[in-house]
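**Protein fold record**
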Amino acid sequence: MIAIIDYDAGNIKSVEKALQYLGKEAVITRDRDTILEADHVILPGVGSFGDAMGKLNDYGLVSVIREVVDRRIPFLGICLGLQLLFEESEESPGVKGLGILKGKILRIPDHEGLKIPHMGWNSLHLQHFGRLFAGIPEQTYVYFVHSFYLKAEDEHIVKATTDYSTVIHASVEQDNVFACQFHPEKSSDMGLRILRNFTDIKKED
């Protein structure tokens, strides 16, 4: 069973539908026991960094997410879910992120001819042999919607980048923690393959 963490963020139902399309059992929940009993856990979402951290705290989900990570349950952050894994964001000064991974979320720099938010399809440069990208070709196009981007402190955890005004760390992996700035559930067949790759990852003892 895959637990999709419910913290009133947008885009949660589309992740559920993508997993169901893959034949996976998925439940949207904020129940601690259900989340900790899951084989995989996903933190999706679109919205504001500060509002999202407020909801995670209000629902008591911060400690649950930390326990998921400590128990080595495969965990995937999507879009805002990626950003929340890190320490802070320029979107919400003074608000601390989960801090599970080290790095900062920065505003995409203005650039002539480029619109912010970045909304649309961009190609990925794959590196460091990310498990999410098994069987995924270099320069695969995936779907993004964001105004802020990740700059990870340790570039070895970065498994995919894309270029949009700057180099964006588009996917990271560290132990049982995975995250994508793009939306695999909206990225056609290759996105579904990325989700399937995640669900094929087993819990490490």
Observations:
- DSSP finds six helices and 13 strands in the chain.
- The two ends are 18 Å apart (CA to CA).
- Residues 77 and 121 are 19 Å apart (CA to CA).
